[in-house]
Amino acid sequence: MGKESINVKKIIIIAGALCAYWIGSGFATGQEVLQFLATSGAIKGIIGAIIYAILLGFFVYTLYGVGQKMQFEDPYDIFEYYCGKYIGKIYMWFSVILMYGIYVTMLAGSGATIHQYFGAPTNIGTYIVALLALGTAILGVEKLLDIIGVIGPIKIVFLTIMGISALVTLVGKPNLLSVNSVLIATAGFKIASNNWLWSAILWASLGLMFGITFFVISGSSCKSLKEARLSSIIGVSAISIEVVLLVITEIVYLDVIKGQQVPTLAIAKYISPILGMIFSLILILCIYSAVSSMIMVVTRKFAVDKTKRFNIVATILTLAGMFAGTLLPFDQLVNILYPVSGYIGILLVGLMIYKEFINKNAFPYSKNDKKIIENSGENITR
């Protein structure tokens, strides 16, 4: 096998794009971490975060590699690759519906964020972010990855600042974490599951359903397998640290986040009005980058990017999403859509494990046989 080339800038961009995609409205606003992990308390929440990180790492590392090696013409072919032709089609269409549902949920999150900080009507925030995301998606996959790859590290920095503030608070009040770990269970927050371990597994399998086609697209944009895998490791490592920090932060600032649609924004405003103002803009960037990616991924099922058909389909989906994103409260959308998707994703996890570790010849995939031969042991040039 020849020596694989590595483009450090490309690795950072792809890792940053993963962070930008992953830290969308559910994550950046704090609702996902709150409902899946923090409500279980500090110890169970942190252990759950570690389990989540291990599973996420496996998904991203594997799928970036498969995407780079297979170079699917249609990223949704990944479902046929792992599930076979018929089950794969079921998963493919469920994935399209799920991602569009999450896209709508993220739009609702943008409206909630802008309303909570700026006082503007919720629907106005939703419309603005939707139109900006549409414009970005129309630019094409490579340009989108370049844009959101820069935004990802910015998100990481600001979430880390809040995490450090929580840790500093704990130095002065060392019992606060244990006390609030008990109180958070009865604080009235929505929860994904009554079992903390199951919540972590559900969230990870949701992540698989949510991100599988994006992982494939990102991996295929890399020029070598090593480049793809390094990108995945760096991106998942950064996300995992933020998950643990956010669990601690939400428990420490329990009194601050009660009754808030956007917990992280409430915390940022509590720490510093200036931080709150800046973070409100960062949150909008978080949601904008994730929404841009989602509308790109969904539209790719119906058309190739940078075509007239793509632009028309993306516009129609955006207009429908702008309307649907104003129908239900953000936390209610998260609580309904995310856990159900997690359950659906568990079967897919099993099928992935089966093909990767038990029977690599399961569910023969014929569309790319020629490419598999051509790409074996070679770099991919795009």
Q: How does this model look, in words?
A:
By secondary structure, the chain is mainly α. It has one domain (8-362): Amino acid/polyamine transporter I (Up-down Bundle), CATH 1.20.1740. It is 78% helix and 0% strand. It contains 17 helices and no strands. It has helices at residues 8-22, 25-28, 31-36, 42-70, 78-83, 85-118, 122-138, 141-172, 176-183, 196-220, 225-252, 254-257, 263-271, 273-299, 308-324, 330-358, 369-375. Helix 6 crosses helix 15 (308-324) and helix 6 (85-118) runs antiparallel to helix 16 (330-358). The longest helix is centred in the first third of the chain and has 34 residues, at 85-118. The protein is globular, with a radius of gyration of 20 Å. It starts with 7 loop residues before the first helix and ends in a 7-residue tail after the last helix. The chain crosses the membrane at residues 12-30, 42-64, 90-118, 124-145, 157-176, 196-218, 230-254, 274-298, 310-330, 336-354. Keywords: Membrane, Transmembrane, Transmembrane helix. It comes from Clostridium fermenticellae. This is Amino acid permease.
Brief descriptors of the model:
mainly alpha; 382 residues; single chain; Amino acid/polyamine transporter I; 17 helices; disordered C terminus
Secondary structure layout:
Layout: H1 8-22, H2 25-28, H3 31-36, H4 42-70, H5 78-83, H6 85-118, H7 122-138, H8 141-172, H9 176-183, H10 196-220, H11 225-252, H12 254-257, H13 263-271, H14 273-299, H15 308-324, H16 330-358, H17 369-375
